[in-house]
Amino acid sequence: MPSDTLPRFAPPDAAATPLHILPQDTFADWLGAQPERLQAWVESCGFRAGLGEILRVPGDDGALSAVLMGWGKPAAHARGRFAVARALSALKTGTYKLDGPLEGDDLNEAALGWLLGGYAFDRYATQSPPTAKLVAPAGIDAARIEAIAAGEILTRNLINTPAADMGPEALEQAVRDLGAAFGAEVISTIGDDLLTANFPMIHAVGRAAEQAPRLLDMTWGDTGPTLTLVGKGVCFDTGGLNLKPGASMGLMKKDMGGAATVLGLAHMIMALNLPLRLRVLIPAVENAVAGNAFRPGDILSSRKGLSVEVNNTDAEGRLVLADALALADETPPDLMICMATLTGAARVALGPDLAPFYTDDADVAASLAVAGTRVRDPLWRMPLHRPYDTMIEPKIADLDNAPSGGMAGSITAALFLDRFVTDTARFVHFDIYGWQPTAQPARPKGGVGMGARAILEALPEVLNL
């Protein structure tokens, strides 16, 4: 990401307009202590400090002297996140400094939300919208929040870019650009070399596309515990020969959202120089339709040695991930995390805003849940329910990539992936959506990261950093 596009706070000595954060339950007391002129202005404008209310206050010369922002009542905040970012759509320009009762996690959320609220995907636009600036509030780690925002924006940009400009080649270039920025090593295995290197399922899924399939392998750091991130990089998913209907294909540029999310998380980790050894594995393919496409009924071999019956070519993500996970498991890290836009079943269960994750490690699960709440990156643990293993065991192969019946689809997908991770003690799989269907504060409609901030927050406890 070019340095001039990174999200930044305004310099601490910048001239800034006060932005007063006013909780509704203390608003009357605050207003009563203000000059009569301000009280009259507030009353005449009908400002009541409801959540998200904005009121500009003119000075004696008519110029803007302050901004009031309603903080509402505590119950209102349970229904949304990044409330301070609501101010951006009203203010648009200028530089501001927060004044109010926010502290700790609330203050961090406000500062991060401001940076993320200024995001717009403008790669194809002739003009970029203006963005109001914020002076870093006292009491936050500004550099950390800027690094987190930069990683999230990298994720959003990668997801939002259409497949014509974000195919396997462009995704590889994005990995190489990120690696070059932080001194990481990047190795790629491409096309028929995947067969020589024993990645048969990555090759099978991607061989019908114009751009060759590939496995991207980035490593960084030489001391500390080991962390491996595996991200699904299906740059576009037609469904293959089990062709998706048009309505389902429209968002499939986001099917590399797992890869985009682990790259955003990797950016955060490297920018913050965390004391660990990082590996990122991304199988980058396009699931296309051509005469050499893999077929329903095919039996595929895998790197792990397990055979897989293909009962639906639209369940391709777990196939490419399986080979990458098997590679990662050959040198077991202290923690392995897989992120993928894997199943519609996860959306049916939890909707677009809540990221389900699977792990057998109760301590890791607890750390992630607490971290997600703290940094407003909500997660929900789902069960690796072993009695469902029989659902992914067909009669003519070791595994079935798409069991019939339609039940527990997210769980059976997670169980499928778990078969390829046998030596890593701690493994977590995220079945994310990677898309914001309607605009919300700090999250415009489009690509969005899920789970990365929670993972980052949990790493010091999980890996004893």
Average pLDDT reading: 95
Number of helices: 16
How far from one another are the termini?
Answer: 27 Å
Whole-angstrom Rg: 24 Å
Domain Cytosol aminopeptidase: 312-319
Protein name: Peptidase B
Family: Belongs to the peptidase M17 family.
GO biological process, one term: proteolysis
Give a description of the structure.
- This protein is α/β, with parallel strands linked by helices and 465 residues long.
- It has two domains: 3-140, Leucine Aminopeptidase, subunit E, domain 1 (3-Layer(aba) Sandwich); 145-462, 3-Layer(aba) Sandwich (Aminopeptidase), CATH 3.40.630.10.
- It is 34% helix and 20% strand.
- It is built from 16 helices and 19 strands.
- The strands form four sheets. Strands 6, 7, 8, 9, 10, 13, 14, 15 and 17 form a nine-stranded mixed sheet that branches. A five-stranded mixed sheet has the order 2-3-1-4-5, sandwiched between helices.
- Helix 5 packs across helix 6 and helix 6 runs antiparallel to helix 11 (257-271).
- The model has no long low-confidence stretch (mean pLDDT 95).
- Its EC number is 3.4.11.23.
- Keywords: Aminopeptidase, Hydrolase, Manganese, Protease.
- One of its GO terms (biological process) is proteolysis.
- Belongs to the peptidase M17 family.
- GO terms for molecular function: manganese ion binding; metalloaminopeptidase activity.
Features:
Aminopeptidase, 465 residues, 9-stranded mixed beta sheet, 5-stranded mixed beta sheet, Leucine Aminopeptidase, subunit E, domain 1, 2 domains, alpha/beta
